[in-house]
Amino acid sequence: MSRLAVYPGSFDPVTRGHLDLIVRTCRLFDRVIVAVSNNPSKKHIFSVNDRIRMLDDNLKGNKQVEVDTFSGLLVDYLHARKAHVIIRGLRAVSDMDYEFQMASMNRSLYPDVETVFLMPDERYTYLSSSMVREVARMGATLDAFVTPSVRQTLKRKYKGQG
Ligand code: PNS
Questions:
Q1: Which segments of the chain are extended strands (E)?
Q2: What's CA 34's distance to the chain center, in Å?
Q3: 51-52-58 Cα angle (round to 5)
Q4: CATH match for 4-124 among 2.40.10.10, 3.30.70.120, 3.40.50.620, 3.40.50.170
Q5: Model confidence over 68-124: pLDDT tens digits?
Q6: CA of 110 to the centre of ligand 1 (A)
Q7: Ligand 1 mean position to 9 CA, how many Å?
Q8: pLDDT over 90 at 148, yes or no
């Protein structure tokens, strides 16, 4: 039986921290579905197609990984994909409250699901997509935080701003 994990998130945009977590997940599971949330009521700077494309660009060649999108409840998506494991990154203690609430809610909605928390490399402890967006808007160098293809996409997005 192959071990399957779902790594859900906004990925707005994907950072080196997310990619580090995907590599770690691949060491523990046979297959990983990176599930990009498509929630029209949540404000994203990139469309779901752009967010998927940035992930695809950075993950092509990795046969363990599939990039997909979901809308509605995450647990319904897990059920549809016959998956029982959710991967989430824990950077600092400050993530814990939100993550704990989410994991508890998901568990009560779908008791067969387990949330597995992974720590990214410490270089990415204080990295988040929102910080990347802010720094990109101000025109700062982003090489340490995102890959060149994501940097280009951010550059295009913020051209003429900041
Ligand atoms: O990268 P993010 O924004 O922290 O990811 C959050 C995400 C998309 C995983 C979470 O908001 C989610 O699962 N949304 C789907 C709706 C849902 O299932 N809500 C109930 C659990 S809180």
A1: 4-9, 31-37, 65-70, 85-89, 114-118
A2: 7
A3: 95
A4: 3.40.50.620
A5: 999 999 999 999 999 999 999 999 888 999 999 999 999 999 999 999 999 999 999
A6: 14
A7: 6
A8: yes
Instruction: Please tell me whether the peptide bond between 13 and the residue prior to it is cis, using omega within 30 degrees of 0.
Output: yes
Per residue in 120-131, pLDDT tens?
999 999 999 999
Contact indicator for 14, 54 with CB cutoff of 8 Å? yes
Residue 7: per-residue pLDDT = 99
Q: What is the whole-number distance in angstroms between the Cα of residue 138 and the centre of ligand 1? A: 28
What is the reported pLDDT for 162? Answer: 42
Instruction: State how far the Cα of 65 lies from the Cα of 84, in Å rounded to an integer.
Output: 16
Count of H helices and E strands in the chain?
6, 5
Q: In what order do the strands lie in the sheet with 85-89?
A: 65-70, 31-37, 4-9, 85-89, 114-118
Which residue has a Cα nearest atom 5 of ligand 1?
9
pLDDT at 154 over 80: yes
User: Which residues are identified as catalytic?
Assistant: 18, 42, 91, 129
